[in-house]
């Protein structure tokens, strides 16, 4: 029988997860590229899209942690041959995500002006941010239900279904971006930034419809809600709560970076928007192997197969770092051309090019951090992930950013702070894993 940590089995999960993962940031990258090339007020529109995109990512990452919790619990029960024990848990978790998304919408959509003022946005950038967010926020229920279902798929060791949903959503977004942002003379009026928001909303709806189809047709689960609370729901919500706190700290770092960049001026936040979206794109790309670690690691823990768990960590580390070096090499070859895809303003491009090398240099460190993140989530180690992220953010990233700002390093300082942040995260995860699981593999 083929080993669960064979090259073929790891990549059976990782490659579709990579494609599904990059489809998500591809939606934001497409918005940034299309909006950044609109002739009128392109810098302001690009800045607004970047600010709103960061805030949306922050909220979705925080509240979508039930996806990871669902994946961990399903994979552990799959490994222990007890999948029947979570059949009532799945609909309860999905409905929880839906209800929570409505709360998030209600508490943010009506305070958009205040929220983006806190990012130091003002004038036209603030107006654009508010308009763009009011539309994008309608997608919270669509996205959070979809992510919960994707967690079920990953727990069942299948990332192919999520990949198909994400690719369809990305295709819809790209097509509608050009159609709605630029318009067609005599047929469709140019909607500019609002057009990009509606394109994203249509993409999210497409992914949800497809995810529901796979859920009903391909999985052993259903959406019939049982009034008897599954005893594992408390553990799932506790795991999700720890991941909420962790992700809140993660997004505090992103918020702080964007707030400082906005304060430096519109050209700086425009360049930061491009850099951050590329960094997120790389992160989701590398995260495909983290998803494999999440799914397979949880299954191996359920089966108490510690030897293969150790082998899994070594193999996935190697594959993830290789992907990171490939991304660095490709971007190095096209270093001066990449910025032109997103904006033609020479001042913005000069700032972007002067800092982009730091984003590239940190990719191997990111690869290790993201890979062990995935494995630790599959093992249910949410509390340790929470504590490590809090340390990295408040004792690493924040002091580094404040010191860099004091010395006037601007975007250089922001990305040096991110580098420090990722070094702490990767080192903490590697040390913990070796101490806890290396001794168990023999």
List the helices and strands and how they pair.
Elements lengths: L6 H30 L5 H22 L1 H15 L9 H20 L3 H6 L5 H14 L3 H16 L4 H23 L9 H27 L14 H32 L1 H37 L3 H28 L1 H8 L3 H16 L1 H16 L3 H25 L4 H27 L5
Helix pairs in contact: 1-2, 1-8, 1-9, 1-11, 2-6, 2-10, 2-11, 3-7, 3-10, 3-11, 4-7, 6-9, 7-9, 8-9, 10-11, 10-16, 11-12, 11-14, 11-15, 12-15, 13-14, 14-17, 15-17, 16-17
Helix content estimate: over 70%
Strand content: under 5%
Distance between the termini: 21 Å
Name the poorly predicted regions: none
Number of helices: 17
Describe this structure in words.
The protein is mostly helical and 442 residues long. It has two domains: 1-228, no CATH class; 242-441, no CATH class. The protein has helices at 7-36, 42-63, 65-79, 89-108, 112-117, 123-136, 140-155, 160-182, 192-218, 233-264, 266-302, 306-333, 335-342, 346-361, 363-378, 382-406, 411-437. Helix 1 packs antiparallel against helix 9 and helix 16 runs antiparallel to helix 17. It starts with 6 loop residues before the first helix and ends in a 5-residue tail after the last helix. The model has no long low-confidence stretch (mean pLDDT 85). This is Multidrug-efflux transporter. One of its GO terms (molecular function) is xenobiotic transmembrane transporter activity. Keywords: Antiport, Cell membrane, Ion transport, Membrane, Transmembrane, Transmembrane helix, Transport.
